Amino acid sequence: MSLTIGTRAPAFSLPATDGREIGLDSLKGRKVVLYFYPKDDTSGCTLEAQNFQALKNEFAAAGTEIVGVSPDPLKSHDRFRAKYGLDFALASDEAKTMLEAYGVWVEKSMYGRKYMGVERTTVLIDRDGNIARVWNKVKVPGHAEEVLKAAKDLGA
Question: Which residues form the catalytic set?
Answer without folding.
Answer: 45
